[in-house]
Structure formats: C-alpha cells, structure tokens
Request: fold
Amino acid sequence: MTNLLFDGLLAGNDTANTFAETHDGRIYRYNDVMQDSARFANLLIERGVKPGDRVAVQVPKSVEALMLYLGTVRAGGVFLPLNTAYTVTEIEYFLNNATPRILVCDPARVDEYNEPTGSRGITLETLGATDESATATGSLAQALANADHTFENASCNKDDLAAILYTSGTTGRSKGAMLTHNNLLSNAKALVDCWQLTADDILLHALPIFHTHGLFVATNAILLASSSMLFLPGFDADKVIEGLPRATTMMGVPTFYTRLLEDPRLTGELVAPIRLFISGSAPLLAETHVAFEARTGKRILERYGMTETSIITSNPYTGERRAGTVGFPLPGVEIRITDAESGEIITNGETGSVEVKGPNVFKGYWQMPDKTQEDMRDDGFFITGDLGRIDEDGYLHIVGRAKDLIISGGYNIYPKELELLIDDIEGVQESAVFGVPHPDFGEGVVGVLVSTNGYTLREEDILEMLKGKVARFKQPKRLYLIDSLPRNTMGKVQKNILREQYKDTFSV
Ligand code: AMP
Reply:
C-alpha cells in the first residue's frame, strides 16, 4: 500500500547512513528511522489511533519525537505538534478544537494534563528528553522497546491529511492549518532540488520541531535527500560553534545569525566546510546579511514561507542571493501581487498583497470553512496576509504583514520603510514601527528602537534625522528606546505586544 509522504521521503534512503547525531553522542541511522517509526506506528494503533485521527504532541525536542511524527504518518494519523511553551489553558483550546485521540506530553507535565485529557476521553502518554544514557524517557519511550519494528503502512494519498499545525495566532484564535501528504512531499522535493541537498550533507539542526521550519522544512528535506543532521536541543552558541565545522549546511532564523555575529569565534575558517547557510521565518536585515558575508565569506540564502504553505520562494543557490529579498517562487509554485482591496493583479512593481498557488498550499483551516474561504481566491490562490513587491528582476521583497500596515489620516504607511530608515541611523541596532490609536488620525505612528552597545540615542535627534527623509504623514510621532524587541521563538517581532504596550500613547 502506498503512504505517499512516508514512501516518498524514505523510498530511496541508504539504511546505513546516519540520519542524526545527537548532542549526547548518539548515532541514529536510517535503519533506526525505519524501525522506530514502525514501533511508534504500532504503539499508536494499539492505543486506538485510526486513519485521520489527530495525534497531539507537546514534547521536548528529541529524535524520538521525529519518529513519533513519522509513526503517525505511517499509521495514517494526523500529526499535531504544539509549542512547548503553551500553558494548560492554551492546550485545552487545542484539545477542544482538534479533538485528538491521544495527547503525548512531557513527563514533567503529566499531572497538569491528566484531568483535561481524562474528561475528554483522550489517551495521555508521555515522551521526554533524553536522560544520561542518551535514550528518551516517558511512557511511549518505555513501550518502544517491546514494540514490533515492522509495520504495514496505512494507505494515504495525495489529499489525505498528514499534519495540522496551528498558526501562532497573534490576533484572534489560533487556526489549524491542514497539510496534506502532497503538500509536504512536493515542498520537500522542491527544496532538495533548489538547495542541492545530497546524502553527503550534514545539517546543523538547532530549531524547535513544533514549528514548520524545524519539522518540515528541515527534517523532510533531510529525509528525502538521505542526508544527516547534527541534532541540537536548541540554539546554544557554544554548541553551534562546536558543531559548525562538522556541518555542511545550517537552517536558521535571523536571530541565529545575529547571535553568531556577536560571537568572536565566528570566523571564515570556522565555517569553511559549510556550503549553505539558509535563513527564514522572519526578515533577515540586509545589514546582517552583509556583516555575515564580511566576516565569513558566506552569503546567506534567504527564503520565505509560512505554516499554511511551507516554503514559497527562495533566493537562488547559484545566482545572486539578494539581501533584503526572499528570491523567486519554488518550481511549481506561482506568486502574484494584488491590490488588497480590489484583488486586482499588480504588475508594475508596486507593493500589494502576496498571493500563492501550488501543490504546497494547504487544504484549509481545520473546521473553519469560512476563514478558509475568506483567504482563498476562486482561482486557487491563497492570500498570505503578507505585503510585498516583485522587483524588475523578479525577486520578491516582503514588506510586512498586512495587519501591521498603519493607516494614519487615511494614508497607508508601511512600517518596514521606516524601520529601514531608522536602522540606518548610526547607533541604532534595530527598530520596530507600528500604529496605535490616535484621536485625530485613526492611527498614529510609533516606533521602538534598540541602540547598539555604547551608543546613547535621543528621541528628538532621531525624529529630526527622519524629517528630511520621509513625507510628514509617515514620520513617527513618538520613538521609544527599549532594551530589546519582543520576539517569539522563531525570531518574529511581536508587534501585537508592542501595540498593546503603547496603546495609550495618544490617548487624551
Ligand atoms: P509562520 O507561519 O510562523 O512560519 O510565519 C509565516 C510568516 O513569517 C510569513 O507570513 C511572513 O510574514 C514571515 N516570514 C517568513 N519568512 C520570512 C522572510 N524570509 N522574510 C520576511 N518575513 C518572513
């Protein structure tokens, strides 16, 4: 029987090749991948998981957690990873919304989850981080030893669900993006092709695995290419610096790169064996791009994607990797820019709403047909909610989220334009610009900025410097110096937090 995603990812694997080397020195081969994923599939079936059932998972990062993902796919289940930072109240929302058959949690949290799962008839199991003997802990890990290492995969086709990933939901309730076998497989194929991954590659993996970046973008592409990973529990500068000379590629969020640049141990010599540094999930400042190349001689490849669509565009592997852009659509993927209000296609390089169509585009939001319809055009394009423009050479530039657009006195203001100008000012490390309620203008422009070590900045000086550079209606009315920008685990600036914090700036 065909299981499109599992067979597609693992059909050509070399069972003797290393899939992952863990921080505690375990070598995990493709043979182990085949056997442990079968064991997990058997354990899930024994616990009543049937094709289409959701398997909710909130566990620390481990190779076993990845095997639980593959085991779920083999059993025909729907993998539903959850951010480890979610509280029990947040988890209850996901249990109600997704009605999983089983929740697998960290052994340390089992007491919190007994009641919420028991009262809903959901089976509770645990899977923990590795112990001193480098093996995973928890009830499922224990049961693994006695489970059968062979499994006949459930038959799953193109449009069957493989996973539901909840979007981070900075406004309103989190939505479950339904991803099919073909969504994930087609994207992995496109990435292996674009980034030229082979069985000789070793990926330094320091990303979380509850998010599409570490889970699908990184892991699926590695599995498909039969490559290996140096699998770290998270981003720890010492561990990353130690691992880089043994890797050939790294996928990171922009904060990985800024943190590495702060470390004097980052040199061209250290990263000489790396053939490809990739960045995504949040904008990489052109300045970081330039500084990284100056220090290491390597040009970061920036790409763009989202939970609902996996990767949409990538800078080229060969050809110019253009700083401040996210490159071209992947093979088989189409993008277009439209007028946010009329939906008309914009072809003159102006900024508009970014829309995408292709085998990577998700099936819809779990049990939210209205929301799905709202975000899908009749001709199959998905409205990403990002604003962008395509330059004369075809590179896509992301200008920000549509919901971050500031409308002040009836004029549209793109925060990115102001952030770029502010970041250019000497002594400014980074900034974020956003709109807050204003009694006259609807919204007023406010910015926060972080100064470079050793610089003292004054609000009035910066406001003065901006005066000659942008039209008056765009100029921020207030700028605040802060210690650091609020970011989530993927390095995205949380403007919702800033808007809330500064909402009374203009209140009378
Ligand atoms: P998520 O669903 O958590 O992966 O978030 C997706 C969003 O992250 C996109 O809609 C973009 O707003 C943003 N994003 C991802 N990659 C980039 C990038 N390279 N540059 C700018 N924004 C990005």
User: Anything to note?
Assistant: The pocket of adenosine monophosphate is lined by residues 167-168, 212, 280-283, 302, 304-307, 326, 384, 386, 398, 401, 490 (CB under 6 Å). Residues 406-501 form a domain with the GMP Synthetase; Chain A, domain 3 fold (CATH 3.30.300.30). The first strand starts at residue 18 and ends at 22.
